[in-house]
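Subject: Sanity check before I submit

Could someone independently write out the structure tokens for this chain? I want to compare against mine line by line before I put it in a report. The sequence has 156 residues.
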Amino acid sequence: MTSVRRILLAEDDPNDVELTIAALDDHGMVNGVDVVSDGAEALDYLYCRGKFAGRSTGLPAVVLLDIKMPKVDGVEVLRQIKNDPVLRVIPVVMLTSSREEKDLFESYRLGANAFVVKPVDFSAFVEAVKQVGAFWAVLNEPPPSSSQVDVQVVDS
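---
Independent answer below. Compare away.
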């Protein structure tokens, strides 16, 4: 059986955190979820700094990222992730209530792997989160870390 890797959930709304955790729990993935409540905490988590300085340095299997968060919004967190050579391999799923076309466009332009609009209907939301979590945390094969890859430079 494939082991479940960690999921980083960056969400400031406690109700949405509860719904997301419940959906992941239905799929047996709740023990692998780390929750942060704003974009600054998400970046601290990813860079193992601040209150996350002592966490193991492994990358999460996926980041579920809300767009509208305090301190640093989700689009800026996405921008920093995708501009970092180490972090850019992490799949990022924008999990948001925003239906604004500019948010969708900007998220994909910056490199988001998916954009999921939080449905108002609880059962539809649970099903969407279960599918996203199962795919990225269980089924998807992450790229090897740079230390596992032999890179040869060939002069032409």
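---
OP: Matches mine. For the report I'm noting this point. The longest helix spans residues 122-139.
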